[in-house]
Amino acid sequence: MEPVWDTSVSSNCSVSCTNRPVQARIFLTSFTCLLTRDATTEVAKKATAYTFNFIEMVQLMQKAIDEVDINNCIYNSGIGVSSCSAAMEAWEAAVAIYTGSLEGTDGNNCSGGCYGYSLYALADKRCDDYSTCGPTLTENKDETAYINNLIISYFTAGQAATNFGLIDDMKYYKRMISAKVAVPLVQGVLKYTWLLSLKNPCGYSKTDKEIAAAGTFSSALLPKVWACSKKGADQLQRNLKIGGNIATAPGKKPSFRAVRLALECNYRCLGIKCTDVGSLFDGDFNPRMTLCDDVFNGSDDVSVSSGGKPDPRRKQACKRYTGKPGISGRTSSDYFVNGYE
User: Fold this and answer.
1) How far apart are CA 278 and CA 121, in angstroms?
2) Residue, of 140 and 253, whose pLDDT is higher
3) 192 with 214: CB under 8 angstroms?
4) Contact predicate 100/131, CB 8 Å
5) Concatenated DSSP letters for 253-290?
6) Across the strands, what pairs with 139?
7) Exposed/middle/buried for 293, CB within 10 Å: 0-12, 13-18, 19+?
């Protein structure tokens, strides 16, 4: 199929649909040759490492919950009672999927910043861009991401709950882990949308990585944003969809403001905070994007049922990006305490 755009701007902007890796062709069938080979490979790598692993991690946590809930599989069920290990194995497999096998025994970055290839590694990469490394959110890239420390603490608490068959606690930690794993994905969307909104010199080729990364990270977030607000999800889709009318169209640039508000206005529902995400530096001394204010945004405490409410000015600015939740009850103020099962 011939490309649908004019490639005369630069020879570097030409598009080739031949010789793509088989797995990429299968995954990207719906894109109908809208990407160069390099961009296609970028999408396939990021989707495999982050989107698909995210799904598998959540499925494994749910499997652990089902083993306890349906099969009464409790490892530490009392003296003289045969233990069942299936639930514990599923929970620990979820941890393994999140961390990967290349981070090393201490789980930190090595000096200078070397990484694995899973979600844990993604958080470490983004923390350097947003100055959110280390327990104080101020360390350099030699320290692991603050959000990784938090997620691992939830996994550890969930493991203890699984050990004793505490279903409600398992469900709570699954919700919190699923929420916080979205943080580096949000950071990725904001970073690459910012780049696209300023660069994009010929519409596609010179920004292959930015187009592919922004589109893939946003697609991983779309189900979560849609659950909170169909309007917010529509803004993400409209601006960053690969093969859409903006991200891959010549001469057009995504609206960074629209993408940012589509995410930030739904932070509370997503279960993340402005301080989780941080300010985008991306190697600059001064921030390219300063972090939002959690109190002003109404996302100051997502772990309690009372919660906060956004400032009226923020609420007005968010009207186009909130409302119409895709899942009934998902925007309830006590979701992260009680869920909606």
Assistant:
1) 17
2) 253
3) yes
4) no
5) ---HHHHHHHHHTTHHHHT--HHHH--B-TT-SS-SBP
6) 133
7) middle
pLDDT digits over 135-177, tens only? 887 766 778 899 999 999 999 999 999 999 999 999 999 999 9
**Counting every residue, how long is the chain?**
341
Do 139 and 132 touch, CB atoms closer than 8 A?
Answer: no
Q: Are 277 and 183 in contact (CB under 8 A)?
A: yes
pLDDT in tens, 177-189: 999 999 999 999 9
CA distances (Å), origin 233, targets 61, 65, 263, 265: 25, 29, 9, 11
Each domain of the chain, given as residue ranges in start order, spans: 38-180, 181-341
Q: Over the stretch 269-300, which tens digit does the pLDDT of each residue have?
A: 999 999 999 999 887 778 889 999 999 999 98
Per-residue buried b or exposed e for 229-262, using 16+ beta carbons within 10 Å of the residue's own CB: bebbbbbbbbbbbbbbebbbbbeebbebebbbbb
